[in-house]
Write a structure and sequence with these properties.
The protein has 2 helices and 13 strands. By secondary structure, it is mostly beta strands. It has a 10-stranded antiparallel barrel. Strand 8 and strand 9 form a beta hairpin. The longest helix has 24 residues. It is elongated, with a radius of gyration of 21 Å.
Length: 259
Amino acid sequence: MNGMEASMTLRIGIKFLCLLLLSSFLFSTNAFAAPWQFEIAPYIWGMNMRGRTSIGPATFDVNQSFTDLLKHLDVAAMLYATAHKDQLGFYFNGMYSSLSDNGHFYDVKVHADNQFGVFGGGISYIAFQRQLSNERAVSLEPYAGVRYTLNNSTLKLNNSSFSKNVNWTDPVIGLRFDYAFNKKWTALLIGDIGGTNASTHYSYSAGAFLGYQSLSWQHVKLYLGYRILGQHYQTGSGRSFYDWDMKLYGPLLGIGFIF
């Protein structure tokens, strides 16, 4: 399958999934009777980075651990949120970080800044849900949406400044699998694919999490798991060429507030 065929297949799949979600919601008898349920979950992602990036003719290999990145971290914010009304759902997952570094190259003072963010959102529908016992339950929730990435870098050499600001948007389709062991413990698997071209613009995301909800704190849920995000985005040519081929991965800890 070439890049154009993959792009058309992904777009058709997203349109079909959105149509399925919308039609299922409109024809559901409880669609407008069920109350909304919200969950807001700030989290910490111990992110590692491995891959390469190219700007013009220059290519840089990247292999940074979480502790390496933490040394240069100025600001970071991460949030996952969902809203459900019966089977219909909406989701948001965003992370933003600002990093900086200072140094000298012979007599040249060097300062580098980077603002990096990934923001995703879309619509979902619980297509399958079954109670296996008094406490055990399972559900499948397909979703469709977009994932927006910004990567803005500034390099200052004494009094000279150079900037490269790049952003792109991936349409995505994915699936969420929930399994409740009992009223306290749940397992959650989430995975999606996105992009518009199989060779120069694609992405994927996957995560596995364990959730704990105390019976005495029913509006609070703790999450522990692991997430990986792979991205490849290429654009331009010559001096304006840009290539981002990167894997972001690491453990994740979050706390969800349910209301």
